[in-house]
Design goal:
Layout lengths: L1 H23 L1 H23 L6 H23 L5 H23 L6 H21 L5 E2 L7 E2 L2 H24 L3 E3 L3 E5 H25 L6 H29 L14 H5 L2 H15 L1
Helix pairs in contact: 1-2, 2-3, 2-5, 3-4, 3-5, 5-10, 6-7, 6-8, 7-8, 8-10
Length: 285
């Protein structure tokens, strides 16, 4: 019972912080994105390198990841609108890539290139998707006059949270057929469909609400497509992190969030759902 109470309190606090950071202004959104990137990368590197990373390595590779997330945030705001500006902004990260490869020449480990690949995959898996979150909060994305409209990004998180809640409750009550038992024994097909149906109903409600406010960028059918895209991708995001943890024999990615585990445990869904949502919205808008 105590664990349930702690989990609920942490969940409410966690949700409030995310919503407030997104709602308040672009800077707090960047702070949220940077924190997600930093803590998740720390947990990721701690897992795959099994605690062999030095403090300097953590600082260098996590800083590079935050910089990559920041570039995408700047691009979404319209501050980096011209191609040449984007190229200039990318130079520090490109130099970082070069230095990492050069450093591997002097690395006396058995598989230095494997270590480099593991380092870069953390940026692809975590930093880039987190940076892409901001593209759902700015419109348009082509000029320095982009407007900060966080409603779509809030809807994105709302759909994921509703889906997770619906899948958990439905799976707990009716779950009999395992979805992916080899990786996640507790997930069921009944939970999956229960979560998707609840997310579809939520997307319909969001569409009505946005129509009423006068800020709706999508039709009802586009909202349904968005909900399906986000929930299906979120499922694969959750399963991917489960695969990572099962591969390395751990239960949670960390313990920063009491009752919930680590930062990756709470944001695993977005690491695949965000790129999927970005592609979907880019195609229809």
């Amino acid at each position: 019972m105590n664990n349930v109470i702690i989990r609920c309190i942490t969940g409410v606090f966690f949700t409030a912080v995310v919503v407030l950071c997104i709602w308040y202004n672009p800077t707090t959104l960047w702070i949220l994105s940077a924190v997600i990137t930093a803590v998740s990368l720390y947990e990721f590197y701690r897992i795959i390198f099994k605690g062999t990373f030095t403090l300097l390595q953590y600082i260098i590779h996590i800083t590079a990841g935050i910089y990559l997330t920041t570039i995408l945030w700047l691009a979404s705001t319209g501050i980096i609108a011209a191609t040449e500006n984007m190229a200039l902004a990318a130079i520090p990260y490109i130099l970082y890539l070069i230095v990492v490869f050069i450093a591997e020449l002097y690395n006396r480990k058995e598989e230095p290139f494997t270590d480099a690949a593991k380092t870069f995959i953390g940026h692809i898996y975590i930093a880039i998707p987190t940076g892409l979150l901001s593209y759902m909060a700015f419109y348009p994305h082509t000029t320095i006059l982009s407007y900060y409209l966080p409603f779509m990004l809030l809807a994105f998180f709302a759909l994921i949270w509703v889906y997770d809640t619906g899948a958990f409750i439905t799976g707990m009550l009716f779950g009999k057929h395992r979805l992916f038992e080899r990786i996640s024994p507790k997930k069921s097909w009944e939970g999956l469909w229960g979560g998707i149906i609840l997310a579809l109903l939520t997307s319909w409600g969001i569409s009505i609400l946005f129509d009423h406010i006068g800020i709706n960028p999508l039709t009802i059918w586009q909202w349904i497509g968005f909900a399906i895209t986000v929930t299906v991708a979120a499922t694969f995001g959750d399963l991917s992190e489960s695969l990572l943890k099962r591969t390395y024999g751990i239960k949670d990615s960390g313990n920063i969030l009491p009752g919930h585990g680590g930062m990756m445990d709470r944001f695993d869904s977005i690491f695949i759902a965000t790129p999927a949502a970005f592609i979907y919205l880019s195609l229809i808008l």
